[in-house]
Amino acid sequence: MADELEQVVAELRRVIAADFPIVSEVNEHLLQMKGKLFRPTLLLLSNKASGGNTARAITLGAVVELIHLATLVHDDSVDHSVLRRGLPTINALFSHQIAVIMGDYLYSRAIIELVRLEDLEALRVLARVTNEMTVGEMRQLEAHDKLAYGEGAYDQLIRAKTASLLSGACEVGALAAPAAFRQGLARFGMLLGMAFQITDDLLDYTQSEAVTGKPSGLDLREHKVTLPLIAALARMPADSPGRRVVAELMEAAEPSDDLVADVVRLVEGAGGLETARQRALELAQQAEAELDVLPPSPARDALQGSIAYAVERRS
Amino acid sequence: MADELEQVVAELRRVIAADFPIVSEVNEHLLQMKGKLFRPTLLLLSNKASGGNTARAITLGAVVELIHLATLVHDDSVDHSVLRRGLPTINALFSHQIAVIMGDYLYSRAIIELVRLEDLEALRVLARVTNEMTVGEMRQLEAHDKLAYGEGAYDQLIRAKTASLLSGACEVGALAAPAAFRQGLARFGMLLGMAFQITDDLLDYTQSEAVTGKPSGLDLREHKVTLPLIAALARMPADSPGRRVVAELMEAAEPSDDLVADVVRLVEGAGGLETARQRALELAQQAEAELDVLPPSPARDALQGSIAYAVERRS
Questions:
Q1: Which among A108, A118, A141 is the nearest to B98, CB-wise?
Q2: pLDDT tens-digit profile of B141-160?
Q3: Least CA distance to B112: which residue of chain A?
Q4: Domains (ranges, CATH) in chain B?
């Protein structure tokens, strides 16, 4: 895959190229910031596993990564995040304004590229997914009653925010394949994406800044309610001291390090981390089962391997 | 046209509809804020004047207005504007975050609708135009050396920021027409759009807040250099007192009302307003000449009329 992922990066570079200085500067920073190319990897594997044509899949992989980047740039701006993968975000390094405009620039470049490929089906999938992601971001902003936020709302959020694009990547890789493969891979990506996001939310509780490139306990500091806390709260009686500490954190504009650490301990003590881990594994198993529709191949095995990566990673 | 524009609004309402509360709320506000539907009007007229099919043009008109709205929502957020057409902006009424996400929501809905129409050519034109608009926004942010900002840079800016979408609207209205009509209408829209933006920039110097719904002299307050000032500066010698007053305004973080009024008077005294008016009329004449390619029709006459609207409007 290493060779193909290098081609994806070259395609990405071509698609976002600009002759306007500030845009080129931001592009260079984004190319440094790029992560493990998980979405293009899924797209390429999905393509191979369903018997597709790799050349087109490389460009589509670049487009999917580009949509991911556009989303990250806007998300970081909306969340006022200062670090991403250990590097300063676009809003922190340049400005809020440039982050908003660059997100639009990147997304419109992705559409231009899909039009150039004359690929209406890929456009259909990826436009729908992008729209779902914006609704996911709204859901995240709008979670007002933190202590009543339930697993149903959380599932909707992580589907929209994260799993939809992983599902889209798998589906777009299999557009030329029989419907059963395409649909199975779309479901695989959705389940994998949910497991991936739950793992991410767990890492926020368990990993240090040095490993993830983000301050730990950041979600709690920002009053984001994720599965570990939801599961822990479900086990705390209405007037328990634990619930009062969580309420205190949610009411504090800037919770202290001690308060964050207290809630992390409470969540762990109430089995919130363990429940979230179990849920991620359950989704991972469901994802694996979806692969049964495909004929055996090294690519199918690699997709199976990507499940392990999603739920076992440390950053 | 009134009946068709009502259908455009109904289509717009359908395309942006959402079952998520905050999105519906923002949508309602945007529908109240909608202006004179100049872009759908141009698209419909361009369609009729080139012999097109109105039903599709109505949906495309809604999409073009939607792209315009998405751009306004992000522009207002980037500029921290608080008023638009006399109503509070999305960033002012809701939040900066919601404005960023809603712009993305609206734009992705526009793409979904174009995919639903299976209209690759319209997608090609409008994706290119949207990308040009983002580069135009960057140009606006990046104009550092205010006093050296020239007419060439200004032309590039207004083409990208404003004229590209008017050109796109005219072109998309004529996609089914012979190439000569399509190209002529695209050029017509570009010239008209430049005249339209110059007129807008003039109104910022000449009209009161009560008429435009924006504080007057706002561009100067925000250190935006437009054609009236560029033309005036071109006639001020290097060390003239006038140029020093302009420099003082550009250096003031928050210029006083008196300073803004001084620069407005200086620009008028140096003939900057008159030069900008002449330039708008020149572009209007060039736009009119492009219509000669079309056969005579009421729609062609109405396109001619839209030129007068663009350069003679008072708000």
A1: A141
A2: 877 778 889 999 999 999 99
A3: A127
A4: 2-312 (1.10.600.10)
